Amino acid sequence: MVDPTPSRGLPAAEYVELYNAGDTAVDLTGLQIASGGKPVTVTGVPWLAAGEYALIVDERDADHFSAYGAPLLLCRLPSLTNGGDEVTVLLRGVSVAHLRYSPDWYHDEERDGGGYSLEFTGRGDPACGGNWRASLAESGGTPGRANSVEGLPADNRAPMVTETTLETGGVTISFDEAVTGIADYLFLLDDLPAAAERLDERTFHIPFSFVPGKVYRLTILPDYSDCAGNTPDQLVSRSLLLGSDLRPGDIVINELLFDPLPGESDFIELFNTSDHAFDLRGWQLLNQTSAQRPKVVNTSFVLLPGEFVVMTADRESLLRQHPNARRDRIVEMSLPSLPNAGANVTILTQNSVAVDALTYSPEMHAPLLASTEGVSLERIDAAISTDQTDNWTSAASTAGYGTPTRPNSQTRSAGPPLHYFTLESPTFSPDGDGHRDQLAITYRTAVPGTMARVSVFDVEGLPVAQLERVALLAAEGALNWDGTTDNGRLAPPGAYIILVESFDGEGHTHRYKLLAVLAG
Predict the structure, then answer these.
(1) Concatenated DSSP letters for 430-442?
(2) What DSSP string describes 149-195?
(3) C-alpha dihedral, 68 to 69 to 72 to 77, nearest 10°
(4) How far is CA 105 from CA 84, 119, 124, 142, 344, in A?
(5) Are residues 85 and 35 in contact, defined by beta-carbon separation less than 8 angstroms?
(6) What is the torsional sign of CA 72, 78, 84, 89?
(7) Calpha distance 71→56 (Å, rounded)
(8) What does the buried/exposed string (b/e) look like for 92-108 if buried means 16 or more CB atoms within 10 Å of the residue's CB?
(9) Cis bond leading into 6, ω under 30°?
């Protein structure tokens, strides 16, 4: 018992329980106990019988423990630190038991705040924290009798990799607990075995000369375990990068959501336009118009050439809103304040070197958009300056009003501006056979912020279906008709007229009449 308060029924005092697991009595003459300092001599019971318990208690607390029936071993008990310590029991100068405990040994968040003893489960090595857990006894412990957790599992989780730190001299790998395993058989660098040295029970180092800007793949094979025998069931793979010099325009702000739907979160997307990679650890995000301190990227994330990364305070919220987003390209972190009325977003490296900055406002959205709530701002051309306001517009409704971790819906292809609507195939048959089950109306828009209405009529001019009342279009894409009418029924076979009306904030309007055939 290292943390006896608040008491759950036992004396509010520390104690150490001994148990003779052998089949003969043990002479306790010369017994000592230490807790990180000089051992103190224990007196009281000359012999401990086989299968018998004894309690080492402070001599000033003897009266409190006499009622438990176990023999008492008295001394000036060294203090047992709540946050972790080591305990050594010596017999005639020889260590017979040694523990280095920590709060992790409780394995129970409801019982690690005091009043519960640490009990050995009887499984495996007593010096292994994975074989201990908090007492399940209502009184908080079982002094002088069998442990309440005897035979029960405690730690059943394999060690986890917590850190991979790359420096000019090599890479250091850290685990969240002590691991066993032969260092030279645990690691691969770019699929080749890598010789490693063990720095301590949780940490390994692989000497290696890394080329700045080049990405290496570190693989950690599942050939290690903790002291309780827990082994991972899959390998761990990490990208490693020693950063190169950042040039202007290498990393740009590519998409921004500052007015999310209720219950959703803002996000900031970056895009790597360069031909080399960067590790974003330590980079800072701030709003220059706010007095808030910068928000820091505290995890390693290697942004490869041509890839996107999205920062948001709530990864799961973003994935619910945009299920096509890539989870592995989302960094969950606190963001600077992004007011709906407009503000500034600035990206800095860990050395406070400016990467990119955007001063945004709601006026940068498509002018015909009824509401900006839940609609992200997308960059149109990564090669045009970030602060050019006409290089930004609203994400298309046909793309879910946002494209986090994916190419922007409003990115324009190189070449002269084109504007058209056409049918991928004039004939379709919604019979569920997987072949042309829908009518695809493909399009390309010349002006960002273009909107469209799409209606279906029969050959006599009677309305059949309204596909899109008002859609905010992407730079290019497709609108689909599944052959159902406005009343939810499948339209009969025959010819149909598809009327497309497009318009934009610059006053351009277009009308297209397309003839389609629904085959029987």
Answers:
(1) -SSSSSS-SEEEE
(2) TTT---------EEEEEEETTEEEEEESS--BS-GGGTEEETTEE--
(3) -10
(4) 9, 9, 14, 17, 47
(5) yes
(6) negative
(7) 9
(8) eeeeeeebebebebbbe
(9) yes
- Residue pointed to by tokens 């050594």: 88
CB 66 within 8 A of CB 43: no
pTM: 0.60
Q: Which residues of 431-458 are buried (b: 16+ CB within 10 A; e: fewer)?
A: eeeeeeeebebebbbbbbbbbbbbbbee
Q: Which residues pair with 268 in a beta bridge?
A: 256, 311
491 by DSSP, 3-state: which?
Answer: coil
Q: Which amino acid is at 231?
A: T
Which helix H or strand E contains 454, and what residues bound it? Answer: strand 451-458
What one-letter code names the amino acid at 292?
A: Q
CB 315 within 8 A of CB 323: no
Cα(520)–Cα(10) distance, integer angstroms: 83
> Residue 503 is encoded by which pair of tokens?
């318009």
**Tens-digit pLDDT string for the chain (520 aa):** 999 999 999 999 999 999 999 999 999 999 999 998 899 999 998 999 999 999 999 999 999 999 999 999 999 999 999 999 999 999 999 999 999 999 999 999 999 999 999 999 998 899 999 999 999 999 999 999 999 999 998 888 899 998 888 887 899 999 999 999 888 889 999 999 999 999 999 999 999 988 877 888 999 999 999 999 999 999 999 888 877 778 889 999 999 999 999 999 999 999 999 988 888 999 999 999 888 899 999 988 889 899 999 999 999 999 999 999 999 999 999 999 999 999 999 999 998 999 999 999 999 999 999 899 999 999 999 999 999 999 999 999 999 999 999 999 999 866 677 899 999 999 999 998 989 999 999 999 989 999 999 999 999 999 999 998 899 999 999 999 999 999 999 999 999 999 999 999 888 999 999 999 999 8
Task: Please tell me the distance from the alpha carbon of residue 135 to that of residue 2, in angstroms, as a whole number.
Answer: 12
Q: How far is it, in rounded angstroms, from Cα 319 to Cα 226?
A: 34
Cα angle: 511, vertex 516, 518; to 5 degrees: 145
CA angle 194, 197, 198 (to 5 degrees): 130
CA distance 190 to 5: 52
Give Cα 212 to chain centroid, integer Å: 26
Alpha carbons 30 and 510: distance in angstroms, whole number? 100
Return the amino acid letter for 402: G
Locate 27 and state its tokens: 């002479």
What does the alpha-carbon distance between residue 456 and residue 495 come to, in Å, rounded to a whole number?
A: 10
Strand partners, 466: 455
Could you give the CA distance from residue 61 to residue 386 in angstroms, rounded to a whole number? 72
